Amino acid sequence: MSNDDFSLPISGMSGPASNVDESSQAAPIAKMPELERLATGFVHCLRTGGLTVPISSSLLFTQALIAVSMGNGHDVYWAGRSTMVTRPEDIAMYDAMFLAYFHRNGTGFKVRFEDEPESATLGTDDGTGEGDGESSDDEVMALRYSASETLNQKDFAEFTREEMYEAQKVMNRMKLQPAVRASRRRVASPGGDRNDLRRTVRAAMKTGGEPLQLSRTTTGTRTRRLILLLDVSGSMEAYARVLIRFAHAAVVGRGRVEVFGLGTRLTRMTRQLNSHDVDEAVAAATEQVADWSGGTRLGDGIKEFNDVWGVRGMARGSIVVILSDGWDRGEPEQMSEEMERLSRTAHRVVWVNPLKVTPGYEPIARGMAAAMPHIDTFLEGHCLDSLTALSEAVGA
Question: Which among 126, 145, 164 is the end of a domain?
């Protein structure tokens, strides 16, 4: 590698490159305010790209920059990566942000501050495929990223408030259409399997009593009811704050949706979520649930649903979705018995568990293990992509 080149370490390297010519590196930054401004600007750039960087990590990054003295580009790269990147899947985004914020100029390692001309630009992909509409004689390297694609795979537990509102827009666009079933009502159809005497006679009155065309009917269809049972216990708090917004989108977007909160008791939240103002709806729903972020007795909650609402026919032929991590303080025998009752009544039982994405996960928790034999579909529920898979499973 020549003295005028700076190569980014390949993602997954265990240490900095060893063939860097130290004589080609710029002098260290001596002024503390400039170094702090550098660290703050880079942290802001990472957060813009979708990485979660707490204040403690940004302070640690500043201390690391003091230690490496800004004398080597690879040292700066690893100072940031070792202090602010905690997940392997974030390395690619970190590399892109590093290239967007730092660049080489001549033979020295150049740091770009906000008041200096940019040789690298970071843009947001709005899906239109069009640029900024400006041209320049200088060569500009554009690094673009899609905020929505980054958000789709991000864990709900790491969402910021701004990201939660962006996720709400995505969930509102999801077409949550449950499967249909045969209805008792018949509808007109030219190729139907039964004659429609009433329509035939009515049409004949317009032609002097002569039936010129025979009307026929076929069996109609009806959308199945969708029931969401959301675990609101303390172990699900980080996910419940997002999943309840998914439930709101389902209630507002279409009819025949029922939402219940599962904690130490069962709480119906359908009426509270039936408001087009999402913040108002979520606030009313959480206020309705007295045991939000409390304990969990899934077996008792499902039993109450079967006894109170199941006997009324709400679950009959419906698609029941349970959003829970499966941690239950009740007896596994009761969980198994109530899940069996529910599976006999419902058309399909879908269990959405955010912990399923964990490498090596096995449903060995007592409540989860007792429910598994009575579940038709077992899905992840930690990100927006998993909710898209849930929408497809519900409509299958």
Answer: 145
**Tokens read off for 305:** 């649903």
Q: Are residues 216 and 275 in the same domain?
A: no
In Å, the largest CA–CA distance within the chain is 104
308/189 same-domain check: no
Q: Using the 8-state DSSP alphabet, how is residue 133 labeled?
A: S
pLDDT digits (tens, 9 = 90+) for 93-111: 888 778 777 754 333 444 4
Look at residue 159 and tell me if it is in a domain: no
Partnered with residue 261 across adjacent β-strands are 230, 267
Burial call 20-39: b when 16+ CB within 10 Å, e when fewer: beeebbbeebeeeeebebbb
- Same structural domain, 344 and 252: yes
Whether residues 211 and 305 share a domain: the answer is no
pTM, entire model: 0.59
Q: Report how far residue 275's alpha carbon sits from residue 292's, in angstroms, rounded to the nearest whole number.
A: 20
Q: Give the tokens for residue 294.
A: 């409390």
What is the 8-class DSSP label of residue 118?
A: P
Q: Is residue 109 domain-shared with residue 137, that is, in the same domain? A: yes
Least confident of 49-53, 130-134, 273-277, 345-349: 130-134
Phi first, then psi: what are they for 267, rounded to 5°? -130, 125
Q: How confident is the model at residue 319 (pLDDT cuts 50, 70, 90)?
A: very high
**For the chain, how many structural domains are there in total?**
3
The predicted-structure confidence for 338-391, as pLDDT tens digits, reads as follows: 999 999 999 999 999 998 988 888 888 888 999 999 999 999 988 999 998 998
Q: Residue 13: phi, psi to the nearest 5?
A: -65, 145
| Residue 76 belongs to domain spanning | 22-145
302 and 204 in a single domain? The answer is no
Percent share of the chain, pLDDT over 90: 26
Let me know whether 261 and 139 are in one domain: no
Buried b (16+ CB within 10 A) or exposed e, 359-395: eeeebebbbbbbbeebbebbbbbbbbebbbebbebbb
Residue 92 lies in a domain: yes
For helices 73-84 and 55-68, what crossing angle results, to 10°? 160
What is the DSSP code string of 291-304? TTTB---HHHHHHH
* 194 and 278 both lie in a single domain: no
